[in-house]
């Protein structure tokens, strides 16, 4: 995509976002929004991800909502798991850092995956290198080093399918 087309697309997206936020068709708001969007489009060109027009796909919005529901479900389950571990007399924890392989391709998808993992109690994404996430986990099973596929599904697999439909 050429530089001019990219800046024009950034301007349009930022202007539409401005209009949705102010929710007014007053001339002052339209002029202010155009000026702000124009400044941002030229000063911070490339701020929006590549293929930003995909942001307007209703199918992607649907899968984003599905992901939020799925995330809420797993957050509740993880909270109950952490509560069990805290209230258990023997405090059954085996903390450690595990490798999680992802099949997501875009940086945005990997970032959302890392944040989804971190929002789930008992896990914290420490680093992302290529297609590998390093996650601190409250209870690392003994076979976590040898069975990366099982570990990956236990931490990230439940989020990857919806995130792939949103971002890839």
Give the helix level as a range of percent.
55-70%
Report the average pLDDT across residues.
Answer: 88
Strand/helix succession: HHHEHEEH
The count of β-strands is 3
Kindly estimate the percentage of residues that lie in beta strands according to DSSP: 5-15%
Termini distance? 18 Å
The general outline is elongated
Main beta sheet strand tally, sense and closure: 3 strands, antiparallel
Structure description:
With about 170 residues, the chain is mainly α. It contains five helices and three strands, in the order αααβαββα. Strand 2 and strand 3 form a beta hairpin. Helix 1 (about 5-20) runs antiparallel to helix 2 and helix 3 packs antiparallel against helix 5. The longest helix has 30 residues, at about 60-85. The radius of gyration is 21 Å and the shape is elongated. The two termini are about 20 Å apart. The model has no long low-confidence stretch (mean pLDDT about 90).
Task: Sum this structure up briefly.
The chain is mostly helical and 168 residues long.
Which helices and strands appear, and what pairs or packs with what?
Blueprint: H1 3-22, H2 27-43, H3 58-87, E1 96-101, H4 107-119, E2 123-129, E3 132-137, H5 148-167
Antiparallel strand pairs: 1-3, 2-3
Name some characteristics of this structure.
168 residues, mainly alpha, 3 strands
């Amino acid at each position: 995509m050429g530089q001019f087309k990219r800046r024009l697309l950034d301007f349009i997206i930022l202007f539409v976002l401005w209009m949705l936020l102010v929710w007014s068709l007053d001339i002052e708001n339209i002029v202010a929004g155009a000026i702000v969007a124009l400044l941002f489009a030229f000063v911070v060109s490339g701020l929006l991800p590549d293929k930003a027009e995909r942001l307007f796909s209703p199918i992607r919005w649907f899968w984003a909502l599905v992901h939020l529901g799925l995330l809420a479900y797993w957050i509740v389950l993880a909270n109950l798991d952490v509560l069990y571990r805290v209230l258990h007399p023997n405090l059954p924890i085996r903390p450690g850092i595990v490798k999680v392989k992802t099949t997501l391709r875009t940086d945005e998808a990997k970032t959302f995956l890392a944040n989804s993992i971190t929002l789930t109690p008992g896990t914290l994404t420490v680093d992302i290198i290529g297609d590998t996430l390093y996650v601190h986990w409250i209870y690392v099973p003994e076979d976590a080093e040898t069975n990366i596929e099982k570990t990956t599904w236990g931490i990230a697999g439940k989020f990857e399918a919806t995130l792939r439909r949103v971002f890839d």
